[in-house]
Amino acid sequence: MDLVKPELGLIIWATVVFLILLFILGKYAWKPILNALNEREKKITDSLELADLTRREMENIKADNEKMLKEASIERDKILKEAKEMRDAIVATAKKSADEEGRRMIASAKDSIEKEKSAAMAELKNLSATIGVEIAEKILRKKLESNPEQDALIADYINHLNLN
Amino acid sequence: MKSSVKSRKFVNKFFKYFGVLVFFTTFSVAKAGNEPAHEAGAEHHAKANDKFKPGEMIFDHIKDGHDWHLWDYNGHPVSISLPVIIYSESKGVECFSSSHFEHGHASHLGYKLVDKKIVAEDGHKFYDLSITKNVASMLLGVLLLLIAVLYSAARYKKNSGKLYGVQSFLEPVILFIRDDLAKPSIGEKRYARFMPFLLTVFFFILINNLMGLIPMFPGGANVTGNIAVTMVLALLVFIITTFSTNGGYWKHIFLPPVPIPMYIIIVPIEILGVFLKPLVLMIRLFANITAGHIIILGFFSLIFIFGEMSKPLGYGVTVLSVAFNLAMNCLELLVAFLQAYVFTLLAAMYFGQAKVEHHHEEAHH
Lengths: 164, 365
Fold this sequence. Notes:
Chain A has 2 helices and no strands. Chain A has helices at 8-143, 148-161.
């Protein structure tokens, strides 16, 4: 029965030693250790959260980039289309104005040809009249001495000449 | 960089042996054989040598004592004498080495050893506060624990983040006690204030269990297998539990949620349970560790029992005994951890039960 009879001396020593151990370890060991462990765990959790956040941000940025790229391509297409349209319009206008110019030039050329023609005609008339007169004069000079009938004929010719 | 590692290793080694050195210098190694042997003593030893008594040997190891027995030489025990401290109202405090008792063959200052216990020759009342084998072993264990844990704490304070040495053993254990033991048993909100006690009690039991497994001097004592030590631990658990109770806990005991006639049975059981819980803690640890020591010593006794019958038989049994003891020591190593864990777990559960929350009440019964 000695075995299950607690002895006072050992009870006192065990109490004293354990309480001192509890005090020393509690104050100088468990507290800093547990604090350090908590801090480390907090750091890990924070880091994981930060990584998660960063990843999500990266995804956002990527999505933004893609969106911007898409927009840029649309914009480019639009600009190209507009440029094409503008080019077409310019070509069309140029063609139109060139046509008009050509027609105007043709018209003015026709005009001037007409004028030249009539002037040439008038000149030709005058010239032929002059030539006729000169011929007539030469004939008359020869025939005047001949007969009156011939005079009358000359007069008639002259009258006819006026027609043209 | 390299030299700092070397110096740290040196400091580690120094501290490892320092504790042992201190013990060797403070407690003189006394050889009883060097002193003039008493007639009666010599006779006693001769008689003891005649026949091997396993029961006596086993209880000699399991029980506390005033010297740390190492071995017998020529029929004389060789042991480390431990200081005897006695307080009595008539004589005050007396302090002397236990070597004066000459293993129970001599009396000193009116005291003598009877059956390993100090008895006053004139029968006056006194208190024996000696540094016994268990106290010395406990102090040694606590010293080792302090060195290991304070060293680790210093590393945590430096916050280097890398685990080193004993720290890499302590950290998973601390995390296990916190996350798998304290938090589920006590609850996320209240567990923190019990952590220092739970950790201390776990490592105190563990180191003393492990020291008990060492067969010779630095260990070999039966600290956690001594009812006085387990009583102190259980009593502390009881006190802490009682001081952290709330109304719900007492209501649960005196006004349990059962029909009124059942109170006659339930209330006494509940009241008994309050005291039974720490009692169970005390007995479980004591019985487990003591039983382990008894079994290992029992196996070793077989060698000498059979050796007395015939020498060849003794040698034969040695092989068997060593094989059994190898297995037993492995089991005891497991038990050393397991009992420390069980004690801590139950303590945590009692702390957790000390505060009964209202929504829990219905679920309990």
